[in-house]
Amino acid sequence: MKSLWRLRFYKYSHLHSNNNINIKMSHQKCFSSGAPRRYSYYVAPMIVAEPTRGLVDELIRLKITYLMPNRQVTLQSKLLSEDADWWEAYAHYVSDSEGIVRVSRDKSFGGTYKGQEPMGLIWSMKLAPGSRPGMRLRKKDVTVPYLITISVYDGWISMNFDKRAVLASVVLERFYMAPGVTRIELNEEPVIGTMFFPPGPGPFPAILDMWGGGGGLVEYRAALLASRGFATFALAYLGHKNVPRSLQTFDPNLSYFKEAFNILNNHAKVSKGNVAILGLSLGFTLALLMATEIPNIHPKCLVCISGSHYKGLLEGQPVIFPDFHKDENKIKITEDGSVIWRNIPLPFPDDPKRMVQVDKIRCPMMLIFGEDDQNWPAPESAVEIQKVLKAAGKEHLLTTLAYPQTGHLIEPPYSPHFRKSKFKVPSSDKAVTVLWGGEAKPHSDAQEDSWKKILVFLEEHLVSHHPVAVTQSKLYSGSATFLVTSHPGGRDGGHDPTSDEEALSLVLTTAVTSSDSQTTLRLVLLPYNVLQRWDMHVVSHQGNWTADRTRRKGNTYANSKRARSHARTWQFSSQLFNFPPVLYPRASDCVSGF
After folding, report:
1. 281 flagged as catalytic
2. DSSP states of 362-374
3. Which structural domain, as residue segments, surrounds residue 520?
4. Among 408, 417, 461, 487, which one carries the catalytic annotation?
5. What is the pTM of this model?
6. Is the dihedral of CA 376, 238, 285, 413 positive or negative?
């Protein structure tokens, strides 16, 4: 008997079976006899995340749909660190009249954060119950992303998530390295570190990146800066297996740091003379020393975070902060056993040999500090530096960013806040629990705000000061489309490029605005398989095989029959190219070609 299907009505139904919530949609199957037979199916809740893949400093838009209207739900984020520790955050929300929760719009009523916080599920992460105490979340392998699972649960819950049914989940990939960024290790003398270069031939403005007295090689900030258009050298100078003790000697001439600066400045992909120095904690002090004490070193600008102009170095010996042992009475111990070191240099000594002579500064400098820094007297040092520069008539060189209720560890945006954590003192190889200070919400706001201002500061003093300045470069957005040409190299004629991802490359079109207000198109090559990882797939293609028109004139391959059989024009949706802005320092680089 022939049957017909028609939609009868929609009905919301809350089913308690297996703790699942669904939207029930009812249909009727109508036979020719007129006897109806009802069938039902259910639409499960769904999490929509934009983007699911992106850089760690990019905002994520989360929306949960197909929930029961005005229903209490819990959102949880969770990741497994490279140290095998679980980190998590959670928040309590109520769906609207349409059964939707928008994290960027709606307020959290409880959990690890409250209020309207679009990125609260990231920055409020803490060690999950049962994990080792005192750990920090730090990326070791920047070539792979963080994998963060976002899940939604029925009701407001605060524990035992693994015992509750998950209504929906999505996995986010958060990268420090954008597609096309190059990572180069320097594992031998004279210096040890890792260089990161943005896509393209360069030359690029550059940054020497130094972390603090914890030592080791920390790459993630450098990788993120390279993803934002700056060639960056993450320098290891203390507590690293490949840095010999002889190189850890802080000699009066700072030879190791001078060599590192010169290697970066003279690199073929670096715009010579356009090098900044960025330092945190002890790196702050070293940045000041390099700018004031080393002859023939002329950084374009300095970014100094959570540090001091107090030297704290024992010249000629591989020991830092010798006063740790002499002034133990200045070290405070909290009730839970955490140590506070901020009083060790206070009051600042009158001996000029113990302080960096900041009146010798010749370049713009940005000072960033938290007013609740419990590790080092950064606020007091900022006041003293401002007084010295004002007396020297150089106050115009100083930009100060002070953040209340913010601690010592000011990192890239959305990094979890650590009020205290374990710390290994390099001079003694002993681990202690250090109180860094700060409160989660204000500290997170400070990280987000300072990062934006750091990028603006670096662009102002590195990019705009280039002889042929390029002030901005952005990939198109909106309703425009890209015409991208594919070139599978070394294959026989007539081979479809989409069938061989390893051979296929894409030429991405960007718009660059130079100092003369003229816009030029730039082509950048990226492997197709790299683009696939970022969900940049072919939407449609148009036309037949066409001749290669993008290679430089005079290239015999470009005019060959083989080239004409390998070139094809593809059309992409511009919204798939959600890359960050990239800075290209020379208009001469903005020429189509290979």
Report:
1. yes
2. -S-EEEEEETT-S
3. 470-589
4. 408
5. 0.75
6. negative
